[in-house]
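Student: Hello, beginner here. Can you help me understand the protein record under this note? Any guidance would be welcome.
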Amino acid sequence: MSRENKSKYAILGILSFGPKSGYDIKKKIEASTSNFWSESYGQIYPILKRLVAEGLATQSIEAQVGKPDRHVYQLTDNGLQELQRWLTEPIEPQVDRIEILLKLFFGQHITLAENIRHVEEFYNLQQQLLQKYQAIAEKIKTKEADNPNAAYWLITASYKLHVTQALISWCEETLSQLREKEVQKDSQNM
C-alpha cells in the first residue's frame, strides 16, 4: 500500500473527531500527528474529494461573509467502517530515509571533523526533540486527562520519547567512535 493510500486513513482518522474543513484538518494534523505523520494541503484536498466520491465522507458548504465559502467534511458510517477496517490490518514494514546515516555511510569522502560536526548537530536536535516530546506528554497528561483518546495519544508520545532517547544514545556512541578514530589518525601522523 502506498503512502498516499495511508494518507487517506490519516484524514479519515482526523474526521473521526468531528466535521472539519481542509484547513481544519491541516491544523489538527499539525497539532496532533505531525511528529509522526504529516500531510500537505496538496495531499488533503484531493483525498477529501476522493473520500466524498467513495461515499466515505460528505461535504457541506457554509457561506461566509466577506470570505470564500467554507467546505466542511464529515465522516460517514462507511468512512468509519473503512477506518476501522484499516486499523485492524497488519502494519507494513517501511524503510526510513535518514540523511545523517546517508552522510555517514559516505563519510570517508569528508574529514572526520565534518562527520563529528554532523553527529553533534544531530545530537543537539535530538536533545531539543526530547524536550518537545516531554512537553507534549505532559500537556496530554494535564490538559487531556479526561479525553478517552488520551491514553492512545500518550502511547504515541512515549514512542517518540523512546526513539529520541535511543538516538541520543546512538549519537553518544557514534561520537565516541569518531573521536577515537580521530585520535588514532592524529597518533599515526606523529
In short: The first helix runs from residue 3 to 15.
